[in-house]
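Subject: design request, 137 residues
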């Protein structure tokens, strides 16, 4: 595992150095913004692949920990489903009569907001519970 950490550090430093060089070259109009945007897409793809692959590897190596992760994912899906069923499906138009959101879009956006409110209330509630429980210990 130590060799992997050294390898990852070298890759990280190389990507950071290349990003710094590209930024400096962009500042002096040596490279175009198209190249810089392409580099950002490459970095985004590397980050996305890393964020997907390494947790899967960790779950395969530690199935007990994977159970807890799946419980969390199931709870998140349940909250999203609750938000979807609590949301309305009104059609929204502006004063000129132009369509702003159809029924499906309206329901999905409202479901996202409701799920966010539920998650925010849960986070605030858990913080309050943690602090209050410290008082009584």
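Subject: RE: design request

Done. Sequence follows.
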């Amino acid at each position: 595992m130590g060799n992997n950490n050294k390898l990852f550090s070298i890759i990280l430093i190389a990507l950071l150095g290349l990003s710094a060089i590209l930024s400096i070259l962009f500042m002096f109009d040596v490279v175009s913004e198209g190249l810089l945007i392409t580099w950002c897409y490459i970095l985004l793809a590397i980050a996305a692949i890393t964020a997907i692959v390494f947790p899967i590897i960790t779950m395969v190596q530690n199935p007990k920990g994977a159970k807890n992760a799946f419980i969390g994912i199931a709870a998140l899906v349940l909250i999203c489903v609750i938000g979807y069923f609590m949301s309305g499906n009104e059609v929204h138009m502006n004063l000129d009569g132009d369509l702003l959101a159809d029924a499906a879009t309206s329901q999905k956006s409202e479901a996202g907001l409701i799920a966010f409110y539920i998650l925010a209330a849960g986070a605030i509630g858990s913080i309050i519970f943690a602090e209050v429980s410290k008082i009584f210990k």
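The first helix runs from residue 2 to 27.
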